[in-house]
TrEMBL record:
The keyword Ribonucleoprotein does not apply. InterPro entries: Isochorismatase-like_dom, Isochorismatase-like_hydrls, Isochorismatase-like_sf. It comes from Paenibacillus chartarius. PANTHER family: ISOCHORISMATASE HYDROLASE (PTHR43540:SF1), PEROXYUREIDOACRYLATE/UREIDOACRYLATE AMIDOHYDROLASE-RELATED (PTHR43540). This is Isochorismatase family protein. Keywords: Hydrolase. Residues 35-218 form the Isochorismatase-like domain. Pfam families: Isochorismatase. Belongs to the isochorismatase family.
Length: 229
């Protein structure tokens, strides 16, 4: 699949000419010291391995089978990062103090499953968390807000973030925009993202490709990782 085919049928009017004339989507390139950033692979957002509508009663923010497909596609990249001794970072969305949970303010549903300590906030077993992995707990969409992530990246001398996880239009996009704003080079594993709304997923990929990140297939990422020292 051509990358552009993800969003081509969504473009209207002069959109394609604006993209071309504006020079959007130009590759920025990746650096030599990457870290893998896996956004929120938690039951609350993964849900169960079935169509999204069938699991919404238990996981109202779960994506279902598409989330699991995206995670499975990312595993070769995750494993290669570990084999090469490169940093692997997970984020977890947790409401430590509910009054400061920005998502609760936009939701009328019960959010007890999102409070620190609930099993649905833990990383799913399939990521096979290792002692060398870093886990960042966050209370906002971007993993950079109110967390020590930048301090860790500085200590690791990371210049590039390879990003996957979910959801594309929310916490992934927020992290990618902040990373680019902080002058990290960003590669988005577009085959390894998930979102509960297909339109939001596709438009967010277009937006990140246009302005903030290089888009990478799994094969692109594996080739890149194998070229790093």
């Amino acid at each position: 699949m051509r990358l552009e085919s993800i969003w081509e049928d969504l473009l209207l009017g002069d959109d394609q000419k604006v993209i071309e004339k504006g020079g959007f989507g130009k590759p920025r390139g990746l650096g030599s010291r990457p870290a893998l950033l896996v956004i929120d692979p938690q039951p609350n957002y993964m849900g169960t391995r079935e169509p999204i509508l069938k699991q919404l009663d238990e996981f109202p923010t779960g994506v279902g089978e598409k989330a699991w497909e995206a995670l499975e596609k990312s595993l070769p990249v995750l494993n290669l990062f570990r084999e090469r001794g490169l940093p692997v970072i997970f984020s977890r969305q947790i409401a430590k103090y509910m009054q400061f949970d920005s998502f609760a303010n936009k939701s009328g549903r019960d959010r007890s499953n999102y409070v620190e300590g609930h099993p649905y906030t833990e990383l799913v077993a399939e990521v096979n968390r290792q002692p060398t992995d870093i886990v960042i707990d966050k209370g906002y969409a971007s993993v950079f807000v109110g967390t020590p992530l930048v301090n860790y990246l500085n200590r690791l001398q990371v210049d590039t973030l390879i990003v996957c996880g979910g959801v594309t239009s929310g916490c992934v996009r927020a992290a990618v925009v902040d990373a680019a704003s902080l002058n990290y080079r960003v590669g988005v594993l577009y085959e390894c993202l998930f979102d509960r709304i297909e339109l939001s997923h596709r438009v967010s990929l277009l937006d990140m490709w246009m302005k903030y990140a290089d888009m990478l297939s799994v094969d692109d990422a594996l080739e890149y990782i194998n070229t790093t020292k």
